[in-house]
Specification:
about 35% helix; elongated; binds adenosine-5'-diphosphate; 30 helices; binds magnesium ion
């Protein structure tokens, strides 16, 4: 029996080869396919008289085939099928490429239906590669009665691909729209089995379709109005989930604690004074708001918006600086490895005059600013030590950096920060609320207990809550702990590993003396239980009458060893013991805290029995400028700061649509720019939807430029399939002006900063959204050089050119995004990668009303039952998140 989980291969007509292609689109089961929504409808609900065809528009034409013939084009090396269709009054030319069999299927005199986009050449309008159907014959009868408009004319039986509203899907090579429509028509009834998790009263209140109905209708609507009601329901799903998630994050934050970061005025001023530019007023204002938030004991949750090139990085750097100076840790997350590496370089430079330790940790590399040429930045372990084991190395770098820079892999993995107080997320829109939730609810409580250099970590539950408490106030006896650690490292360096316990104890005693630490050796301490003396404890050292230090040389330190120390410790008046073990491979530290003695900072509301959560301050950066009113709908949990002005002295980027016959002239111009010392980006679009990494197009363009156009210039290539190290090498060479032209997929879209680049070339520009094109354009014009953006379009249709034309005069990302929506017009649904928000596939930024409703509905649900117990299906859906925020 057919179910939602039926594999697609099990359906008739889908063989192994087709299944493989579907898999490329991540379609494996019937459910996957049902939820693979079209991105556009061709509106063929009217038959257009041939005489009224307009280039650039889609149309359906019905007529008689007057002529059909195959030709070979040697220049373009392909088969061309040419046909002429007449509807009595007029006729129109039709061309198909590499489908010679069409001339076998269709005969002169056949009555056919043609649908597609109308192009234009010297002879007037024509159809290029349209869908076609023979009307006399009965084509496959599709299994969705009632979903089609009445079919045309006496002869018009069964036109499904060329009449009515015809859905279009993103495809991959070897799959056709016809196939996909056919497969869907076979399983569309299964939509009835989809669960609808939206509570009925909400559905009623906001007049939403049932989910099953919406899914059916989004594939096969009768009218555009019907398609819109379907879209509205599915968009509502996305928006209410987003709202529920942000509200839960918000709720969590409201109850969480954070480490207050004091504003270091002197150091901040000094840092700002050393910049080689003056901060803009907006940069000052936003930085001030952020630094004030940081001073609070409640976690900041702020979004910094500023168009591309507005200078958000340096504002973030001010926050990072203050956190590092306070001795706490900060993490900076970027959406790509390229950007992470760039931030590492930028910050290493910005903080050159400080001794702040910066670490770069991505999947493929681990580096610190001490590796560069620095001698003043102290990562303590020797370079050789660190190189030994790259995993340990990562751990080491993370724990010992003041600022850790990485990609979101950093929060996906189980990583223990030393003392995380601030998380900065660059290009927030690439991450989404889920990642935000992960950061917010990360308690690094158990991490702080364990000192750097531990390669294994075992916690006893008894000490955990106290560690959390300790964390909120900062590390207990932090300075003293660091001195002790320092002494231990010195001893380790001098003696090496593998000696006896006594040897290390003796050497440490000398070292403590040398650095003037007050200590007692083997002091006798009374152990008391219930005020009765139960024995005497003689630890190796007591430092400054505050910290007990036990030195071991054991093959293994586990729970037993730690509990032993802890059981002694709790009978004393001391708060902290350090268990230090000299393994044969490394030194291992364990902090053990005495609960009874721990300063009693209110563990919150004992009645709620809820552990109080520690959360880092959160700063998100985005170049997708969303008006405040709208931001609530998307970022219900964030406060917002905006940088409006761009740094002084920036020139407008001259933007031009370049016709194909001016291509040579454009290349000549580029050459002149390069001779003048500048550099050039070339962006290529994806040519195949399943080639998500965009490898194909980029390779082709690279070859062409490298071999034919600029054989004398060094050209670089960048795409998603390259190893991170390769990518970074290319970026570095581009930054150093060794590579003159960088051919790339949209990976450069976000954040990349190469001020010397002055020309941005975009191939196939019509395939990108306006906001996205604006982002690309933002990669140039980042210095005093006049910069240029050239758009090449594969379509000369007037509507498509008019859309690109808006870029010439508009420089506001949000306005452009809005215009894009208008240009899309009826029948156009959405562009997944264009919404700019990972959670929004169907909903757009401009669904104002729907967003308000979804927000209202989400708040009402949480109000009724903050744990969502009443709606088990809904709860299942966001359970991963709920677990993270401990609502269970
Ligand atoms: P974005 O906001 O897009 O992340 P960046 O932070 O990368 O922008 O800044 C873009 C460029 O502008 C960088 O090269 C940066 O050094 C420079 N910049 C930042 N602030 C100023 C300023 N106030 N005056 C001049 N240049 C600035
Ligand atoms: Mg940036």
């Amino acid at each position: 029996m057919l179910t939602l989980d039926t594999k697609l291969e099990a359906l008739g007509r889908i063989g192994a080869a087709t299944a493989k292609k579907l898999k490329k689109l991540e379609l494996e089961t019937a459910r996957d396919l049902l939820l693979y929504f079209p991105f556009r409808y061709d509106d063929f609900s009217k038959v257009t008289p041939i005489a009224e065809l307009k280039p650039g528009e889609s149309a359906n034409v019905v007529g008689r085939l007057e002529l059909i013939q195959n030709k070979r084009s040697f220049r373009r090396r392909m088969h061309i099928t040419e046909a002429l269709i007449t509807d009595g009054d007029s006729s129109v030319k039709v061309i198909w490429f590499n489908q010679p069999y069409i001339a076998k299927n269709l005969k002169e005199g056949d009555r056919i239906s043609i649908a597609g986009k109308v192009d234009e050449d010297f002879s007037g309008p024509y159809f290029s590669a349209p869908s076609y159907e023979k009307l006399e014959s009965r084509v496959e009868h599709l299994d969705h009665p009632g979903l089609r408009p009445p079919l045309l004319g006496k002869e018009g039986i069964g036109a499904v691909h060329t009449q009515g509203l015809v859905p279009n899907y993103h495809l991959t090579e070897g799959l056709t729209q016809k196939q996909l429509r056919f497969f869907l028509s076979q399983i569309i009834k299964l939509a009835e089995e989809l669960t609808d998790w939206l509570p009925l009263d909400i559905r009623k209140k906001y007049k939403l379709l049932s989910y099953s109905e919406a899914v059916k209708k989004i594939h096969f609507p009768k009218t555009l109005a019907e398609a819109e009601t379907a879209r509205r329901r599915i968009a509502f799903n996305e928006l209410i989930l987003l709202q529920l998630q942000s509200q839960l994050v918000r709720k969590e934050l409201a109850e969480a604690h954070a480490v207050p970061i004091p504003f270091q005025e002197e150091a901040t001023k000094k840092f700002v004074g050393r910049l080689n530019f003056k901060l803009t007023n907006d940069q000052r204002k936003t930085a001030w708001a952020i630094l004030r938030d940081l001073e609070r004991a409640r976690p900041m949750s702020r979004l910094l918006e500023g168009d591309v090139g507005s200078g958000k990085t340096v504002v973030a750097a001010l926050a990072l600086l203050n956190v590092a100076l306070a001795g706490k840790q900060a993490v900076l997350l970027a959406p790509t490895e390229i950007l992470a590496a760039q931030h590492f370089a930028t910050l290493s430079k910005l903080f050159e005059e400080t001794n702040i330790r910066i670490g770069l940790v991505t999947r493929s590399q681990t580096r610190t600013n001490a590796d560069e040429t620095r001698t003043d930045v102290d990562f303590t372990q020797t370079k050789a030590d660190r190189k030994k084991n790259s995993e340990g190395n990562k751990d080491y770098v993370i724990k010992n950096s003041d600022i850790v820079i990485g990609t979101h892999a950093l929060i996906q993995d189980k990583i223990n920060f030393r003392d995380l107080a601030l998380a900065v997320i660059d290009e927030q829109h690439r991450f989404g609320v889920e990642q935000r939730a992960k950061l917010v609810t990360r308690t690094n409580a158990d991490d702080t207990r364990t000192e750097a250099d531990t390669t294994t970590r075992t916690n006893t539950d008894k000490t955990r809550t106290h560690a959390e408490r300790e964390n909120r106030e900062g590390l207990l006896y932090e300075d003293l702990t660091y001195k002790i650690r320092g002494a231990i490292f010195t001893v380790k360096k001098q003696l090496g590993l593998g000696h006896k316990e006594k040897v290390y104890q003796g050497a440490l005693e000398e070292e403590f003396k040398k650095i003037n630490l007050k200590f007692d050796r083997e002091k006798k301490i009374d152990i008391k239980y219930n005020d009765k003396k139960a024995g005497i404890y003689q630890p190796d050292f007591v430092i400054d009458d505050k910290i007990i230090v036990e030195i071991k040389k054991l093959p293994f330190v586990g729970k037993i060893e730690k509990e032993q120390v802890w059981s002694y410790l709790k009978g004393t008046n001391y708060e902290l013991a350090l268990l230090v073990n000299f393994f044969n491979t490394d030194v291992h530290f364990e902090r053990i805290i005495n609960s009874k003695q721990s300063r009693s900072v209110g563990v919150k509301s004992a009645s709620s029995q809820r552990k109080s959560v520690f959360s880092p301050h959160l700063l998100s950066l985005t170049a997708t400028p969303i008006p405040r009113s709208l931001a609530l709908g998307i970022y219900g949990d964030l406060d917002i700061s905006v940088i409006k002005e761009s740094p002084l002295g920036r020139k407008k980027i001259l933007t031009k649509i370049v016709a194909e016959d001016k291509r040579a002239a454009a290349y000549k111009f580029i050459r002149e720019q390069i001779m003048g010392g500048r550099q050039v980006f070339v962006i290529c679009p994806l040519i195949d939807f399943s080639d998500r990494l965009g490898v194909k197009a980029v390779k082709q363009e690279y070859e062409r430029l490298d071999k034919q156009i600029f054989p004398d210039l060094k050209i670089g290539i960048l795409h998603g399939k390259m190893k991170a190290a390769e990518k970074e090498k290319v970026m570095r060479e581009f930054l150093e002006n060794k590579i003159k032209i960088l051919v790339s997929t949209s990976v450069v879209e976000v954040g990349v900063d190469v001020p010397n680049a002055s020309v941005m070339i975009i191939e196939g520009a019509e395939r990108f959204g306006l906001a996205q094109l604006h982002q690309f354009r933002g990669r140039v014009g980042r210095s005093v050089h006049q910069s240029y953006c050239f758009l090449f379009s594969e379509s000369a249709a007037p509507a498509s050119l008019a859309r690109l034309e808006t870029l010439v005069n508009h420089f506001d990302g949000f306005e452009l995004a809005k215009m894009d929506l208008k240009f899309r017009g009826a029948g156009q649904l959405f562009g997944t990668e264009q919404s700019g928000f990972p959670e929004l596939k169907i909903a757009t930024l401009f669904d104002y009303e729907l967003m308000k409703e979804a927000r209202e509905a989400a708040l009402a649900l949480i109000d009724q039952d903050s744990e969502l117990k009443k709606w088990p299906e809904l709860k299942t859906l966001i359970r991963p998140l709920l677990e993270k925020v401990h609502l269970e």
